[in-house]
Design brief:
Layout: H1 2-6, H2 8-21, H3 39-51, H4 56-65, H5 74-79, H6 95-115, H7 134-144, E1 147-148, E2 151-152, E3 155-156, H8 164-171, E4 188-189
Antiparallel strand pairs: 1-4, 2-3
Length: about 190
């Protein structure tokens, strides 16, 4: 049994299930369906995590806030790519609506993956017997509202990954610059 559990194919198989849950895709969707050329790094992070039998609480924290840990690494930053996996319209007809659709995708995926709850309908109204109210939903939206995809025009930009020291050396930022720059999810705080 131990032999089977240590095989790379075991981690790859279980990673496929997780990647389905978090809506992993290597393209943005919509009419132009632009490629996400660095998405494979997130996929490989998931496989390595299963292979290493990473504790589930650590697995969750790295994906939700790997850039905010005391000790960041390329892997903890890549893990936050979780937030970049959903569809992205590089030329929305209604940017404010598209912005909230992106936030809804993040909140819905986060709640489905980590809470095992679908809360999308709370975006519009309360249900009498549902555990999540519209107020709860918008509280979750507020958590992610500071995220903004770095881009130049219609092109999404990637940010470097590494330890704080590696990133500081690369960008000449002080080591104490906080966690907002060090996001592999390629989002920056507004």
């Amino acid at each position: 049994m131990d032999d089977l559990l240590t095989r790379p194919a075991y981690a790859e198989r279980w990673a496929r299930h997780w990647l389905d849950v978090v809506r992993y895709a290597e393209s943005n969707g919509y009419e132009r369906d632009g490629v996400k050329p660095q998405a494979w790094k997130y996929r490989d992070y998931i496989i390595r995590s299963f292979q290493a039998d990473k504790p589930f609480d650590q697995f969750i924290v790295e994906q939700l806030a790997g850039d905010e840990l005391d000790e960041i690494s390329a892997d903890t930053l890549i893990a936050t790519g979780f937030h970049r996996l959903g569809p992205w319209d590089d030329e929305p007809s209604d940017p404010p609506t598209d912005r909230y659709d992106q936030l809804d995708d993040i909140v819905s995926t986060t709640s489905q993956a980590f809470l095992a709850l679908t809360i999308g309908c709370a975006r519009c109204h309360n249900h009498k017997f549902e555990p999540i109210t519209a107020a709860d939903y918008y509280s979750m939206v507020a958590i992610f509202n500071g995220f903004e995809r770095p881009r130049k025009g219609r092109t999404e930009l990637d940010l470097p990954v590494g330890t704080r020291a590696e990133l500081a050396a690369r960008t000449r930022l002080p080591h104490s610059s906080g966690g907002t720059f060090f996001m592999s999810r390629r989002w920056s705080l507004r």
